[in-house]
Amino acid sequence: MTTTVRLLVGGPTTSWPTNLAQLPGPWVGADRGALRLVKLGIQPTIAVGDFDSIDAGELATVKQALTGTVVVKPDQDQTDTQLAVKTIFNRLQPDELVIYGATGGRLDHLLANLWLVLDPKFRDWAPKIKLVDLQNTVQFFLPGDYTLKKEANKKYLAFVPMLPTHLTLRDAKYQLHEAYNDYPISWASNEFVGTTSHFSFDQGVVAVIQSCDAKK
């Protein structure tokens, strides 16, 4: 049985999936994400951060609702999200970590969240991490040969080599054969031709994004 932990960080609520409040836990909140969980009626297992975005009364509300512990960030050398991810894998050891609130809003936060898996301290956990919002699912892969399943509500497929690699896309709408770039690139606006897509690469880290257009 796959163990999934969900982490809510501080990005805009407008980027959340519409069913976020109904998703099963355990849940962890990073900084303001912990307060938002409590306001949704969700009891976080762990709250993590320096809590500089909430006041003392709000922090007391979070602590009262907690089923576990508060982990206070000791310094500014790591982000709240980094500390939360490290805490989750060290304490809860999930098979999968799904992160919400990591996109939208400030670009520096978005880049920090996307690049987290490139840090050697986190890279082994990369295949277990997903970033999910209203329009996108981002998965991270280490070198190998993979079969990707299409999400029912997603139209587009993008492959993003984050480090130099040779990338092969065998049965997507637009195919590649050992395509090499020595800089990050987004092979964007690709599509499935069925319910699965096969790809492989030989080094580095590749992010795969399934996405859909925003509803007007």
From TrEMBL:
<keyword id="KW-0067">ATP-binding</keyword>
<protein>
    <recommendedName>
        <fullName>Thiamine diphosphokinase</fullName>
        <ecNumber>2.7.6.2</ecNumber>
    </recommendedName>
</protein>
<dbReference type="InterPro" id="IPR007373">
    <property type="entry name" value="Thiamin_PyroPKinase_B1-bd"/>
</dbReference>
<keyword id="KW-0808">Transferase</keyword>
<feature type="domain" description="Thiamin pyrophosphokinase thiamin-binding">
    <location>
        <begin position="144"/>
        <end position="207"/>
    </location>
</feature>
<keyword id="KW-0547">Nucleotide-binding</keyword>
<dbReference type="GO" id="GO:0004788">
    <property type="term" value="F:thiamine diphosphokinase activity"/>
</dbReference>
<dbReference type="InterPro" id="IPR007371">
    <property type="entry name" value="TPK_catalytic"/>
</dbReference>
<dbReference type="InterPro" id="IPR036759">
    <property type="entry name" value="TPK_catalytic_sf"/>
</dbReference>
<keyword id="KW-0418">Kinase</keyword>
<dbReference type="Pfam" id="PF04263">
    <property type="entry name" value="TPK_catalytic"/>
</dbReference>
<dbReference type="InterPro" id="IPR006282">
    <property type="entry name" value="Thi_PPkinase"/>
</dbReference>
<dbReference type="Pfam" id="PF04265">
    <property type="entry name" value="TPK_B1_binding"/>
</dbReference>
<dbReference type="InterPro" id="IPR053149">
    <property type="entry name" value="TPK"/>
</dbReference>
